[in-house]
Amino acid sequence: MPTPAPFTVALIQDGVAPTAAETLERTVVAIRDAHAQGAQVICLKELFNAPYFCKALDPSRFDLAEPVPGPTVARLAAVAAELAVVIVAPLYERQGPGLYRNSAAVIDADGTVLGVYRKMHIPHDPLFEEKYYFAPGDVTGDQRADRHPGYNGFRVWRTRYADIGVLICWDQWYPEAARITALLGAQLLFYPTAIGWHPAEKATFGDAQVDAWRTAQRAHAIANGVFVASPNRVGHEPEPGTDGLEFFGQSFICDPFGRYLAQAGTEPAILTAQCDLGLIEETRRNWPFLRDRRIEAYGPILNRWLGT
Q1: Residue ranges of the chain with pLDDT lower than 70?
Q2: Contacts of residue 237, Cβ cutoff 8 Å, sequence gap at least 6
Q3: Is 7-302 CATH 3.60.110.10?
Q4: Most buried one in 44, 61, 138, 144, CB count within 10 A?
Q5: 46 counts as catalytic
Q6: pLDDT tens figures, 194-244
Q7: Are 48 and 27 in contact (CB under 8 A)?
Q8: Which listed residue (54, 169, 254, 275) is catalytic?
Q9: Exposed, middle or buried, 179 (CB in 10 Å: 0-12/13-18/19+)?
Q10: What residue segments make up the domains of the chain, in order of their start?
Q11: pTM (global) more than 0.85
């Protein structure tokens, strides 16, 4: 079986403009810049066209949501078709009256909206009040098209350039999500993210938090023999009555050995890297973790706790 051609992936690490419309237009410029650098598959940050609004409970912030497909996805789909690029566009989705999701639309290189991934794991922490704003992704499969098979809410999209899986932010801490998506055939896992420091904690825990964030995701690449790409946002976003959040960037792309192919710091950046899909086969032949799984022994994973 011939190895698919290598492809170039890009991550857009940035903040947000004062309005969603301005942010969208800035993002289109960044997509064009990434394409000029050779990118064929481009991923944006979590909730790309909005401030991270989950820092407080405010019913008016539900107004930031929009349907998928909708005007933002339509604009990006037109750009995808024009440039022949795949775009992963995470945004706040209004699925129906009173039903909101933290989602990512996957747009193929001909402008077709292949589907939507809806964040499965929803956090609840100070300044990360996501359970108020988002319903978790449904635990149902969608096997209706070979182009985007799914299982238990996890999905893989067979795009023009690669078979990609999308998981969002808090999902990145769960090896089960990465493993299922890899078993569905993902060659590349995207983790669009909005993660940052509480400013008062930065001096004590900042470096350790970044290291843990990167290490967990690189481990998913190694354990599953896939490429991993994680775009984060940057910049300080205020919230009245608090110190706000400082989003730390540090976006990266790594290969199936966990080796960094591209890394960013804390400033806006466009990261690009070439992914040689032949490396997946090579890695899995030498580290056959999927072959040696004892699937008959893993039933207890379905329990939340097994201790006394």
Answers
A1: 1, 141-151
A2: 15, 16, 51, 52, 55, 196, 244, 245, 247
A3: yes
A4: 44
A5: yes
A6: 999 999 999 999 999 999 999 999 999 999 999 999 999 999 999 999 999
A7: yes
A8: 169
A9: middle
A10: 7-302
A11: yes
Catalytic residue list contains 45: no
Place of tokens 């301005």: 22
Residues 266, 191, 101: CA angle, nearest 5 degrees: 110
Q: Select which of 46, 93, 130, 237 is catalytic.
A: 46
Q: Could you tell me the CA-to-CA distances from 272 to 40, 87, 231, 251 in Å, in that order?
A: 10, 14, 11, 11
Catalytic residue among 43, 119, 130, 254: 119
Amino acid letter, 171: D
